[in-house]
Design a protein that fits this description.
The complex is a heterodimer of chains A (140) and B (493). Chain A is of the alpha+beta class and 140 residues long. Chain A folds into 2 domains: 67 residues, Alpha-Beta Plaits; 62 residues, Alpha-Beta Plaits (2-Layer Sandwich), CATH 3.30.70. Helices cover 16% and strands 26% of the residues of chain A. In chain A, the strands form 3 sheets. Chain A has a 4-stranded antiparallel β-sheet with strand order 2-3-1-4. In chain A, strands 5-8 form a two-stranded antiparallel sheet. In chain A, strands 6-7 form a two-stranded antiparallel ribbon. In chain B, a hairpin with a 2-residue loop joins strand 23 and strand 24. Chain B has 3 domains: 245 residues, no CATH class; 84 residues, no CATH class; 116 residues, CBS-domain. Chain B is α+β, with helices and mostly antiparallel strands and 493 residues long. Chain B is 22% helix and 31% strand. The chains are: A alpha+beta (140), B alpha+beta (493). At the A-B interface, loops of A face strand 2, strand 15, strand 19, strand 24 and helix 6 of B.
């Protein structure tokens, strides 16, 4: 499970990731992080079986948690399966299948949006209702 | 055992022709051997589908009443070349829209026409006795044109250089987006299924060879521009009115511009064992080079020699690290082209031709003859460097005394570690940070190399909105400075 964590000025300076690990014994893999002076965002990966417990800890410490269930959306009508995106995505969401079609491994997507500005066919977008549209991560 | 084109065409008429795709042929030769493969197989279909910038369409619009001799013409605000007869024009795929810029261009107009859409035609003229009209605005569709002939000066590259980027900045190129520090590799071309690789002596592909061009029947009309075997290219033509939209695609390479992906298929007649052997070529035998786009010069350094098999594997090793690789061409679509051409031949709709003239099997790509190539080292000035221990006050004195705006900060070996500008010093004083320059300097410095062309240095200053670059050697030791004032004096002529 991928979680988007939003820290505010009260939570940003606290070692909450470590606390969550100690309390739940879950391994928390930080995939992206943008830590500012007064607020910050992170995308972390947690084993599905531990996700509930970890989320509970984050919320208790005042961190806003959003489960990233939908990933990048590919418009099949526009994609020509060139595969330019395959070497760009930091978490390897895009792969070729045995017929050289580009397939999307949506569950890996961390919503960084880097691929959107790379696709020559303008075939990629974040999900329409994605709360993550306002992610402030630097691209690449 | 030899076959002629006439024999193969007779088999096509009779419906007994044996056609296989280039992919299938590799397996067949491996299984049956060259001799039997040559006997059994009559035609091998090859295909490619990729961005081909050197493409466009000749159009004839018919005459208006009163008639106009078009001096300039735009289609959906994309200018076409009309320095030919009154209502003839050539629309190139990379030409950009004057109002929409990089999001719409010649390629999009061509795709819109093939999809049956109306396109706005706007033309102006100076007016003559025979062509009195000076302006026209109207709508046209593909069916309204007398002729619409795709004529592409350079298509179907046999193989192409792969690209990577050693610099610490992201690059937006015609080879796609290249990530910093060898972050990825991109390559173009379809390797073992691509037409010219399956006939490397150009025995059957030459002037007059009938081909599949974007779903229509087209022809090779000669070698393409920049033809330099084994980086061979083709000049081709075909009737736009017969083309199918699924075999063409207008695209935008982010930060570079508009171009068009085209589907080209060429049938190779298996006249003898030599052709069977040629069409058995594998990606492992097709070698190209990965070149470094991080060096902004024409002759970019070669990072590595590499086969298409390695490139297609999706990962290569550069400096001991695994780097991911992206194609720019679509194998999925190239396969569709091969399959479609195979079906057309099997259905008796497509006959083969022998070339009426061979294309050259050798050639070199010459660089442009230039008056001079000005390099950074010829315009750089002496740099006034300081140590990180220098105080802000001292730095301000140096700026005034030496009459400079930029002070590169170097360590004891002369290696660049930062830069302070007169603005940085003013800001430091204004905010009361008047300690050492190490505390106020910019650490990530954009630099130039002495052998870099001055245009490249100017581009960096423009891109990063700065007015000077320290010139450094390969060990980042400061050799001098190049400033925007130095360059504008040279470039603004």
């Amino acid at each position: 499970m991928l979680l988007l964590l939003k820290f505010d000025s009260k939570t940003i300076r606290k070692p909450i990731i470590s606390k969550a690990t100690l309390e739940t014994n879950a391994l928390i893999n930080i995939l992206r992080a943008n830590v500012g002076a007064r607020k910050g965002e992170m995308v972390v990966e947690v084993d599905d079986s531990k996700a509930r417990d970890v989320e509970e800890v984050f919320r208790r410490f005042g961190v806003e948690v959003v489960e990233l269930r939908e990933g990048i959306v590919k418009d099949e009508g526009r994609c020509v399966h060139c595969g330019l995106c395959t070497s760009i995505c930091p978490v390897e969401v895009f792969e070729f299948d045995e017929n050289w079609r580009v397939v999307v491994r949506e569950e890996r997507c961390v919503h960084c949006g880097v691929c959107i500005g790379v696709c020559p066919c303008n075939a990629l977008s974040l999900p329409v209702n994605s709360i993550n549209k306002d992610l402030k991560f630097h691209t690449i | 055992m030899k076959k002629t084109i006439e024999e193969i065409n007779r088999k096509i008429t009779e419906g007994s022709v044996c056609v296989v795709t280039a992919e299938e042929m590799k397996e067949i030769v491996e299984e049956l051997g060259v001799e039997r493969a040559a006997k059994e197989v009559d035609v091998v279909t090859t295909g490619t589908f990729g961005a081909m910038c050197s493409s466009g369409v000749f159009m004839n619009f018919g005459h208006s009443d009163p008639p106009i001799k078009m001096q300039r013409v735009w289609l959906n605000d994309v200018e076409a070349y009309t320095g030919i007869a009154a209502v003839d024009a050539y629309l190139g795929v990379t030409q950009l829209s004057e109002s929409r810029g990089m999001e719409y261009g010649g390629a999009h107009v061509i795709e819109d026409l093939v999809r049956g859409k109306d396109v706005e035609l706007r033309a102006i003229s100076y007016g003559t006795d025979c062509y009195p009209r000076k302006k026209i605005v109207t709508e046209i569709a593909l069916e309204d044109l007398n002729q619409a002939v795709m004529v592409n000066p350079r298509n179907a590259y046999q193989r192409y250089k792969a690209a990577t980027n050693s610099s610490d900045r992201i690059l937006r190129t015609y080879m796609g987006t290249l990530l910093p520090n060898y972050g990825n590799v991109t390559f173009a071309g379809c390797g073992e299924i691509s037409p010219l690789n399956n006939d490397p002596e150009y025995r059957t592909i030459g002037v007059g060879t009938r081909i599949f061009l974007c779903g229509a029947k087209g022809y090779v009309i000669g070698e393409g521009t920049q033809h330099a075997p084994p980086f061979g290219t083709l000049m081709v033509k075909g009737n736009l009115k017969e083309m199918k939209p699924e075999f063409m695609k207008a695209i935008v390479m982010p930060g570079y511009g508009v171009t068009m992906m085209l589907g080209i298929g060429i049938p190779i007649p298996i006249l003898d064992e030599e052709m069977a052997k040629a069409t058995a070529i594998r990606d492992e035998q097709i070698i190209t080079e990965i070149i470094d786009f991080g060096v902004p010069k024409r002759d970019r350094p070669v990072v590595k020699r590499i086969s298409y098999a390695e490139l297609k594997s999706g990962r290569v090793e550069i400096n001991g690290e695994e780097v991911r690789v992206s194609p720019l061409s679509s194998y999925y679509m190239a396969r569709k082209v091969m399959e479609e051409l195979k079906k057309m031949i099997e259905r008796g709709e497509f006959f083969l031709t022998m070339p009426v003239e061979r294309i050259p099997t050798s050639g070199v790509l010459k660089p442009m003859r230039q008056r001079e190539v000005k390099l950074v080292k010829s315009v750089m000035t002496k740099a006034v460097t300081i140590s990180p221990e220098t105080s802000v006050v001292e730095a301000s004195k140096i700026i005034i005394e030496k009459n400079v705006n930029h002070l590169p900060v170097v360590d004891e070996k002369g290696v660049l570690i930062g830069i302070v500008t007169s603005w940085d010093i003013a800001k430091a004083v204004a905010t009361g940070r008047i300690g050492k320059v190490a505390e106020v300097m910019t650490r990530k410095v954009i630099t130039a190399m002495p052998d870099e062309p001055i245009e490249s240095a100017a581009r960096k200053m423009e891109k990063f909105n700065i007015s000077a670059l320290p010139v450094v050697d390969s060990r980042r030791r400061v050799l001098g400075m190049v400033t925007s004032e130095d360059l504008s004096r040279l470039l603004a002529r």
